[in-house]
Amino acid sequence: MSNMKLRLAIQKSGRLHDDSMRLLKECGIDISNGVNKLKSEASNFPLEVFFLRDDDIPQYVEDAVADIGFVGENVVYEKKKKIDVVEKLGFGKCRLSIAISKGENYTSAAFLQGKRIATSYPVLVEDFLKANNITAEIHEISGSVEIAPGIGLADAICDLVSSGSTLFMNGLQEVEPILQSQAVLVKNEQLSPEQQAILDKLLFRIQSVKKAKN
Ligand code: PRT
Ligand code: ZN
């Protein structure tokens, strides 16, 4: 028997962490999750888990520092790394949407022509604008995007939405979802047959867990 382990990258802390750990547990995989640990090994499955910032996961998987990762589709498609999306995981559901001030009237994407849009997702917003033949100014900001219109920094924002209450509390209305997102399993494009065999076992368990929930 080989002692090869598949290396999985998951979010260290944040919205996807607990659900990622729970999914592994439901797959019958035991991982000790020491606080402040960078990595951990499963005791009963050939898996090593790396705890990382979600934004870094696509790069680590492309570079084969990790073989697979659990990460939001929003991050996968924003980063445009050469990795494969293998399986939807059913948690971390949200949408990336354009939002504008409550009083304003949005009838189509043409509303955005010549406007300033604040976002942490410049690549996905640019794709959306191009697809709609619109020219607008994108202001990339890393957090608290929803306050941008209120302080005069932007005419519109593009941010993740789940319940909608953040938008509501900031006097904004969601007008255009541009991407539906959830956590997915991604993999490096060049797994060895041995690594792929371990992944297939993991996928079989993940699919069983998903089926049991339906
Ligand atoms: O530290 P690290 O870089 O790893 O974490 P992070 O702060 O970048 O990400 P984190 O933990 O906030 O989110 C991780 C992932 O969770 C995202 O990339 C999405 O794939 C997913 N996800 C699901 C969400 C949400 N739902 C969500 N609602 N990520 C963020 N939000 C934020 C949103 O940005 C806005 O500020 O929640 C607010 C809106 O929520 P509602 O319910 O008020 O609409
Ligand atoms: Zn992040």
UniProtKB/TrEMBL annotation:
GO BP: any one term: L-histidine biosynthetic process
Family recorded in the similarity comment: Belongs to the ATP phosphoribosyltransferase family. Long subfamily.
Glycosyltransferase in keyword set: yes
Compartment list: Cytoplasm
Cofactor annotation: Mg(2+)
One Gene Ontology term, aspect cellular component: cytoplasm
Main location: cytoplasm
Top-rank taxon: Bacteria
Pathway(s) annotated for this protein in UniProt: Amino-acid biosynthesis; L-histidine biosynthesis; L-histidine from 5-phospho-alpha-D-ribose 1-diphosphate: step 1/9
GO molecular function terms listed in the Swiss-Prot or TrEMBL record: ATP binding; ATP phosphoribosyltransferase activity; magnesium ion binding
Function as written in the Swiss-Prot or TrEMBL entry: Catalyzes the condensation of ATP and 5-phosphoribose 1-diphosphate to form N'-(5'-phosphoribosyl)-ATP (PR-ATP). Has a crucial role in the pathway because the rate of histidine biosynthesis seems to be controlled primarily by regulation of HisG enzymatic activity.
Span of domain ATP phosphoribosyltransferase catalytic: 53-207
Modes of activity regulation: Feedback inhibited by histidine.
Key words of the record: Amino-acid biosynthesis, ATP-binding, Cytoplasm, Glycosyltransferase, Histidine biosynthesis, Magnesium, Metal-binding, Nucleotide-binding, Transferase
Species for this entry: Deminuibacter soli
Catalytic activity line of the entry: 1-(5-phospho-beta-D-ribosyl)-ATP + diphosphate = 5-phospho-alpha-D-ribose 1-diphosphate + ATP
Name of protein: ATP phosphoribosyltransferase
Enzyme Commission designation: 2.4.2.17
